[in-house]
């Protein structure tokens, strides 16, 4: 078993390999915990009412950079949104800004039929339901029984029991539900990953679950899930593929594979709608491996006191007849 020190050195080396001269900013950005961030459930409360209640409870809140987000500046003093009755009643929902950003980039509309693969615990699903106001048009997939029923409970608590929940494996979904083929306007593919972007050195054992061998193994699953999402996407539709990790194998390499496999797939430029967002363009070369130049349109969100490390790509399946 590797010692904590050895794992730390391996992780630092990995970050330096991926980010090169920018690695020090990454390592500095994860020295401290990030602030607790949240959304207000507009089905249950007005914004002013919820914020006034929080301020009366002693919280210091400011509006967050992601549309619809708020930052709990009091979390540094151990005042947590997740401990309030507002949270327990589903009026507030604690969610990372990077996680919210994937939904903002997908930009689902009220008339869109939306598929959320790997949806548990329902954070992004409920955010999409909030943005569109039409939860019955949103499908949420989860294969694990415990996580599936936890997700259903969570969505009901948020006031969205009419989201269509599907207990199935995302990778083989079209085999079980052929009616889903080319049926969705937008697809969210936030895949299981090695979670490197969530590492914070301020945690008691930050690398307890980090496995440097996982990226190469899990990238096979990620490709299968992305391919499943592509199969459900209507021509002209949009898909977000995202991870909360730094590994090239799980990010740019997966997108590069998809562009070769699906010639009608394009990588679109992203409008994050976030001012002064700290990010890098996706890697078009890594350890001698070159990728499709369109991958420079993807984004690597850099970790700081507000955001976790994240990778986001916006893909479009070209409309029928388009070249």
UniProtKB/TrEMBL annotation:
Q: What is this protein called?
A: RsmB/NOP family class I SAM-dependent RNA methyltransferase
Active site at 244 (nucleophile)
* Keywords assigned by UniProt, alphabetized: Methyltransferase, RNA-binding, S-adenosyl-L-methionine, Transferase
* Domain called SAM-dependent MTase RsmB/NOP-type: residue spans: 26-318
One Gene Ontology molecular-function label = RNA binding
Show the SUPFAM superfamilies listed in the entry: S-adenosyl-L-methionine-dependent methyltransferases
Similarity comment: family membership: Belongs to the class I-like SAM-binding methyltransferase superfamily. RsmB/NOP family.
Which species does this protein come from?
A: candidate division WWE3 bacterium
* A single GO BP: RNA methylation
Identify the residues that bind S-adenosyl-L-methionine.
Answer: 142, 190
Q: Which domain of life is it from?
A: Bacteria
Pfam families noted in UniProt = Methyltr_RsmB-F
